Each structure stands twice: as C-alpha cells, then as structure tokens.
C-alpha cells in the first residue's frame, strides 16, 4: 500500500490555535490606525502651511516688502502679509493654502495672531469654529517682527492618543 503524505487533524488544529494567538496579540497594534492617520494628516497640513508661508515670503522678498508690517495693501498674490509671511487669518494663510478653509475647520484668534485648523465636525455645517480647538490641531502663528526669531511658525498639537 502506498503511504500518503499530509497533515493530521491535530497538526492543523495546533497551527490554527497558534495563528489565533498571534492575531490576538497583534490586533491592538493595528487598531490605532485611525488616530495615526489623523496625526499624519495634521502633519501634512503643517507641511502645506510651512511650504505656502515659505513661498509667500520668497515672493515678498523679491517684491521688497518682507520688512513691512501687516496692512491691507501689503499683499503678495492676494495674500495679506506681515513681515513677508502670511497673516494668521483668512486673507493671509487662508488664501495661501488651497482648501484650508473648505476642507478643515478653522479658527482665527486675531488678537494674538494665531490661526487654528483641525478636522471638521460631521455635525457642523460650517467650517468656522467658535473657539480654538483644545486637542489635535495645527497652530499657525504669524510673524511679529522682521527678525528671524520672530518669523511665522507652524506646529502640530496632539498625539495619536489625542486624535
């Protein structure tokens, strides 16, 4: 009689149990993908804001207006600037980054020169926030003088646990 090769039922059950144990231990690592994706989206927005601010500053420097304070007539391609960088409002950084005010929920703190952007709420029909977000957002701070130390800054606030 010819001997047939193959796996026994016991061997198959053992392999399935081992795979089940591996799946249970690896599952928590993959369950946090949405939070990681949200943080990555914020980092992408930060990069877009930094890039737009750098391009606007370069154009302002070419035009010779990089040392002027914010005013309605100090514009680069319809973007209001302060010391060469976009101002922290819809006419400044809002115009510099395409889709910022339509794809993100935004809040302007004009008194302190800060512009916030975060994920829009599914329950809200407007992308304009009534108060600054408390976690998981991008914060753009306008330039306060022509010194390099006072240039515009952008930062991501929040971690995967916050988002």
UniProtKB/TrEMBL annotation:
Gene3D superfamilies, A to Z: Glycoprotein, Type 4 Pilin
Matching NCBIfam families: IV_pilin_GFxxxE
Transmembrane region(s): 12-31
Domain of life: Bacteria
Protein source organism: Vibrio ziniensis
Pfam families: N_methyl
Protein name: Type II secretion system protein
Record InterPro entries: N_methyl_site (IPR012902), Pilin-like (IPR045584)
Keyword annotations of the record: Membrane, Transmembrane, Transmembrane helix
